[in-house]
Known about the structure:
By secondary structure, the protein is α+β, with helices and mostly antiparallel strands. The protein has one domain: Conserved Hypothetical Protein Mth637, Chain: A. Strands 1, 2, 3, 4, 5 and 6 form a six-stranded mixed sheet that branches. It is globular and about 30 Å long. The chain starts with a helix and ends with a helix.
Amino acid sequence: MNAELDRIISETKTGAVKIPCHIQPRSSRCKIIGIHGDSIKIALTAPPVDGKANASLIEYLSDIFAVPKGRVNIVSGATGRNKLIEISGSSLAMISDTLKKQLAK
């Protein structure tokens, strides 16, 4: 799974980390479920209406990666389940290690 994860996430020229995500709204709790194709599957408690799921995703990712919410951006897919997230202010190695720990739970 580690090689798969390393293939999925990448670093931009500006140093931000790109994470493709597949979102499962209206779950019983927020958590990283696993790998879904070429994305990280994330369950969220929020419904996919009025931007609630997007806000929940940003808050959840900022919590687990210990970065301010302003450093977590939805680059594409704001209205769908498949999203591309960029996290700035953190290294690829730190993001990768945190994701591996979350996936091991």
